User: Fold these one by one.
Assistant:
Number 1:
Amino acid sequence: MAAASLGLGRLVRADLRHHRRSLAGVFVAIFVASALVTGLGVLVESGIRGGLAPQRYTAAEVVVGAAQQVDVPEDLPVALRERAPLPADAAREIAELPGVEAVVADVTVPLAASGAPDPTAVVEAHPWAASALTGFTLSDGREPAEAEEVVVTADSGHAVGDTLSLAHGGVPADYRVVGVVTAPVPPERGAAVFLTGDRIAELDPHGGAPQVLGVFVEGEDAEAVATGIGETLPGVVARTGDARGDVEFLDSGAARTMLVAIGSAFVGTCILVALFIVAGTLSLSVQARRREYALLRAVGATPQQVHALIAREVLAVAAVAAVLGLAPGYLLSTVLQTAFVAGGVIPGDFALAVSPIPAAGALLLVLGAAWGAARIAARRPARLDPIEALRESSTGPGPIGLPRIIAGIVFAAAGVSVSTVPLVVRGDAAVGASAGAALMLIVALGLLGPWLVAVCVRLVGPLLRRLSAAGFLAAANTAAGSRRLAAAILPIALGIGLGLVQIGGPAIVADEAAQQARDGVTAELRVSAPVGLSPATVEALRGAPGVTGASGVALSAAVIDSRDIEGQLERTEYVLQGVDPATVDGLLDLQVQEGALAALDGGRAIAVSVDTAHTLGVGLGDTVTGTMGDGTALEATVVAVYERGLGFGALTMDAAHVRAHTSAGLDAFALVSVEGDAAQTADALAAGGLLVAPASGQKATGADAVSQQGWVNLVALLVILGYIAIAVVNTLVMATGERSRELALLQLIGATRGQVRATMRVEAILVAAISMVFGVLVAIPPLMGMSYGISGQPVPAMPVLGSLAIIGGMGALALVALRVATGAALRRRPIEEIGSRE
């Protein structure tokens, strides 16, 4: 047994020395996979351990806030979009704990800097006592003592004695600068001003209730104090060190969840793509050496030994490639971070966590995928009997087996069938079904690819033979090597199909949302302010000259409970819109199908979109439970079901109730109807410091979230298409290199280099054309199903330029790669090539 193992080891080493070129493709595919998985692993770890360092709370050893997430069983938590309230007695109870020297409460009230060069400029107002949390000290003047007094930071450009106009909810007020403060490390995010505690309580819609508590520690370890706070007040979180930033910044928790979700999904997709590509690349390598495996089987090698030989060779190459891919993977993580920051998916100052853990995970996953690919590639040479193996070494592999054809047909039928789910189901279920259908069709293409390519070659063969001598040779070569051709076609078709579905989904959603937003607004003007509109400002709009109606709209989010088909609890975040049922009529048309918005009253009633009603399985009179944006429990009865959920949010409640559970306590905007000259009315309102725009340009509610999701899909697509592009070049170079003896033989019997190049050019065009056709065919059923499920229209609203770029780019890749590979294969003299292969 030991001798057999020793002999197998020597054989593996000899193969690695003598077949470097055929194994180079495997090396490249695994190297790229290792880099991708490592980079994505860094993102996942950053979602767990990374984050935002504190800025305003650097002077306090412990920072305390309410829990900003909703836990989901066996899934990632859902981050809350609004600031969750602290328990009323939290400050007093924490102050009584051992080691606590002082507790300082902070409240943030966003104000608009009226008269600033930027009309959307926002500053954060805090009570004067909170200046101690950053270590601010007065460099000039004094602390504020009156309601109209303000202290500014040294970089604000204001001095003691200046007048500063600040607006809250659209209502401006003048403040006199009485002090200027500096800090050892000034906060980089946003400008801050300090008012009296009483003035903050007047401005804050929640009466100045503490949002965050800074705890100063004396004679105790900060971690011990934080632990004690958590044990005393289970409903709060106490953080020390850099983790204090999680309490300070609401977007930190959302970024964590997003990175974990994105990284995990990308890793899974990359491993599947890697398995697919490495298996295809390895199959080419094995096929190029089929004569050797045939001889091994003929001299008595068992199937297990052939499996072991191929597995050892692949793992030896994979181990080196995977290790070398780790360092580029860490560099890739910073590139991905930059891309997600550019799309607004995560904040620009979110710090990545870097450790050896992603590298270790990448090695395990990539080597596991390589081993699986080796098992797949070794099946055919290992199971052939010796006589059949020798025959196949000369004639090449035969057609794919009947079981594989049957499996492919089953997957294709399932994919087409699942694509029709939107005919009977609406909403998220329809979108999810379409995405699943795309995967099924891609698997079907992988299984049926060689057979489908052979059929296509037979169909176009007669035409090619009549074109020219090059066409005749290309037809003969492709007919004989349809399996080899399929290895080049399938990755390209996979990239096209996957790319079209990836860019098509967000485009379909965005197009329908924009259409609903345009159709649903019946008002003439949309009025807003940098930080929102107060109810008093909306009321004042109703009395403005030329205004016949005005209604405020509040925006937030809610996490709704539901059950899956197995009864498992699910929690999903939805956009929540707040409208005033008494004034919204005539300004906003949600296209109500059942019930009436007039029944919205307080927090006990809710309206849901048709798609959401289907997803949650609710109707009129049913109860919806969940969590408001600030963590408060939600339990409301469905009083209306409306159609335009993509344009205006999946859920709608009374505006006063939604405002009460937002951080700012303000309406996001107001819809205004006018009589007479709308432009004149708009100018008059704008002169009062408000932001006025035509209501016809209303952006869909939740458009930013759709845009972010589209950006994530685009980044994912670029990463995956980049990998596929490398794999395509890799595959075509290997496949063409395997045919170097064939190309040399053509030249020896009289073909010129130009004729050989022309033959390869025809084959390249054939590869590109079949790939594009297959890729588009794979994408059509799921995209049509997705479009019907979202907009009710079977023809999807696809981005034309993006679609053409994907189809044309992947097709052109085949042309360029084959041209380069052909040039490399023709470098040696034909007689030398024939001799070397013998």
Note: The two ends are 34 Å apart (CA to CA).
Number 2:
Amino acid sequence: MHNWLTNCATVLTLFSRVLSQTSGGGSNLNLHLTSGGFDNYLWRSNTTAAQVLLTSPNVTDRLQRFVVAMPAGNSGTLAYFVPSGLGQDFSVQLVNGTLQDAVANFNNVGVQGHLSFNADASLGVTIIGAVRAMRDYVEGDGTMHEIFNYTISSFNSSFLHLHRKWINSSLGMDFVLSAEDNMVFNVTPPTDAISAPTVLFQLPDSTKLGTVSWSVVCNETSFTGLGPSGFFLQDSQADNAAGAKALQGLADGSNVDAQQISFLTYETKSLAGGWRFLTYFGRDTLIALRLLMPIITSDASESILGAVFERLNSTGAACHEETIGDYASFINIENGMPELGDTPFYDYKMIDTDLYVLPTIAHYLLDIPQGQGRANKFLSTLATLNNSNLGVSYHDLLARNAIYNLNRAEPFALKPSVENLLHLRPGQPVGNWRDSNEGLGYGTIPFDVNVALVPSALRALGRLTQAGILKLEGIPDAGSKADGYAEVWEQRAAGFFSVDVEGETVQARWKDYVVQSNLSDTLLDSVDTANPEDVSFYALSLHNDGTKVDVMHSDLGFSLLFASNVPASTLQRVVELLQPYPKGLLTNIGMFVANPALSSNRTQIEVLNRESYHGTVVWSFQQALMTAGITRQLKLCDNSTVSIDIEPPTPRPSWCSDKDLISSLKSAQLRLWDSINGGRDEIFSEVWSYSFDNSTNQFEVADLAVLSPQGTESDAIQFWSFTFLAIANVTTLADQV
């Protein structure tokens, strides 16, 4: 089945965002949106929260899939419905207006509704329990874990009750189906504990729709939602005209995007995205916070920051992903500690998440009006979540993180060498936002971590200590030491990633690339073949021995937004990067996050193609990062630059006197926004790929889930993709001020 799903023809899947019903600025939600060929229903009440997903009725290139995902325990149900007849126009849909709370015995809560079937079908692969187990199947080439098998509690011709008891726990989940109008069940129970039952859905009258009522409930702890009025500032609270314009309709919930991001925000944490990442991810929330901070409340910022501090470990490292509920039991068993039961498992394998903490808290406490004067109260909060941190103040947890990052930066600061750059952790193939082997081109030393994030964290440490907010015991000169280390990183790290390609080689590789990628060579019409120019850019990553993964990439955005003292040479490379693809990263549907056209290793063309999760695809948050970063740099030279964000007073960079560079950077920013605007229907989704029309030489949006061999799909809502709410569009500045 998996091969059938992922090898079908590429289909253009339009993205639309449709508001079904809202409840103003409160925390209750009832939303309907379509994305990537799926209908998504977001439900939240004072009882529960859930995302319900079904294959859209006009999509015929995949099986009908039903997903219920709940933040409570990051738990849910996945089921496929398979048509009984071949070649049928088969569809299973949620009956409008039927989604509502479900409450059962023993504190079981969830959601319920009605499904309509237009033909006979059978129940296909079904997974009940952890959303992560559901992801393992969808994206893991059909990976199933026996330990997550469910049981049939009861059944007859009109009723089916499937149950899963959590591992090592009294908690569990129930998936109940009842036959309603024009529907009969035919159920054959399994003959052993491993096999699944045979469940047929039969319509006595084939000319009419059949209806099935369903409910999914569990007794995991639900979280208290943070509605738009608790997340966004009021228009009148904005610090500038652009911010006031951006805030219109957000706090009162009349803006559908405010409602959708609200589904991911809770009083004690924010979630990365639905449905696949409906849990805490440190990096995602910190990046999103850094960009959204100018338009959100103090409570919202401190909810996100507090969640990060609560999950720091005893060394000061920041948690990448929190695993809770039934999957936590599975992880604990896999780690040889079944006695921990469903104690949450915190993942610390990434090397970048730790480095976002200091710059983000510094921006909040020192620059943003909502954070000023709140340092003492917030940092005196005592941690209550993680056993290793119980009773420790947020200040002391932040100090742990500061010392941890200072120690990590020291070897390179004392001896700048490839060996002393930050590498992926031993035995780990991932470590930054491009969290896949392929995403880094199989490199082990990421550009963003070393060139942008380490010096940014050091500079933030210096600012916080100088302001008297952060005190590091035993290191009286911590601030000056951090600034000294930062200067070495700023001056030396980027050089290890520098790539120069000679003009004639550039042309040969571009021509080869368009052929290998099935693109039109008219994309290269602007190339001056008579006077080929050399091209310089920064490598995506390095291998352990210092050899470069010479692939163009979008991660310079991290330097522009987070780093201090960005040199003119980096800005010039940004200008060159923001050229039309395949010379640069820009297309008419957005900015690609990688471009392997000039790589000396031609296998990277396949590794980072349009089917790769981090290849020649568009990530919304990366576009937001890049354009916000350019605006930040321009504002350092000209305070009249329109920005929603608040920038700290800093010395005017020396390159501000280079009028040609400033002009080129502004032109690059406009090109970037033209590219962003071309894919604007997708702007609040996670990631999308492309198809190319050789007759028009235009790119069109394509669904990554259909193209990807792993079935990797885009989330309909992703926390860091909503960061465009806090970014002024320079192509419509008249509307921003």
Note: Confidence is low (pLDDT under 50) at residues 1-23.
